[in-house]
User: Which sequence fits this backbone?
């Protein structure tokens, strides 16, 4: 990963990590008792992880380093709230909300599609096989298809036009994809974005601040919480 990207990721994390994440838990819409229990458990874990350290520079550093490790491992890009806002306005990206349906139904970024990633009772929010299948199916459909050209030299299909080459309509894996979850401390977006990169998508972004940062930024939402 380029040094510039690492610096940008670090600054983004530091800016978000001590921001208010509580707004995502306020009025999340219809939810089962199990979902409510999961929400409370997640709040406790996050408070312990960030605020329980006293909000020191050391805790911010530790959290930031862990975030950077995820970005490097995932090989995806990161995007800020302002960046997501531009994409929502332009409608130039497939936006994936990885939170449970109860949360998604309450509030989500306009145009976002709900595809749950990772169980909340696991420390790493690891994506399940069934979730991988559902996520890939939804993204393939949302990205649509485009013409690819067969490169006889590399023996690979490419999106760059080659005169006289054999063509084939395939899933547009160059489409911009934004994956988000609840807040910076949630790894659902990491797991989802990392999986999509492994599936060959070339323009995948993780929005680390998630719906908490989106709401805190005063942006419009869709869902039952809209008054």
Assistant:
């Amino acid at each position: 990963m380029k040094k510039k990207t690492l610096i940008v990721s670090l600054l983004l994390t530091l800016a978000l990590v001590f921001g208010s994440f509580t707004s995502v838990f306020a009025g999340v819409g219809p939810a089962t008792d199990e979902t409510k229990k999961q929400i409370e458990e997640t709040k406790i874990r996050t408070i312990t992880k960030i605020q329980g350290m006293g909000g020191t520079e050391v805790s911010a550093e530790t959290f930031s380093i862990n975030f950077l490790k995820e970005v490097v491992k995932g090989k995806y890009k990161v995007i800020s709230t302002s960046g997501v806002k531009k994409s929502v306005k332009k409608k130039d990206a497939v936006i994936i909300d990885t939170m449970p349906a109860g949360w998604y139904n309450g509030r989500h970024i306009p145009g976002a599609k709900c595809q749950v990633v990772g169980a909340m009772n696991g420390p790493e929010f690891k994506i399940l096989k069934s979730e991988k299948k559902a996520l890939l199916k939804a993204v393939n459909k949302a990205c649509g298809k485009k013409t690819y050209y067969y490169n006889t030299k590399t023996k690979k299909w490419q999106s760059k036009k080659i005169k006289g080459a054999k063509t084939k309509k395939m899933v547009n894996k160059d489409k911009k994809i934004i994956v988000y979850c609840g807040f910076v401390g949630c790894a659902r977006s990491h797991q989802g974005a990392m999986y999509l990169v492994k599936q060959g998508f070339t323009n995948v972004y993780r929005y680390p601040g998630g719906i908490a940062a989106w709401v805190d930024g005063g942006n419009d939402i869709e869902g039952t919480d809209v008054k």
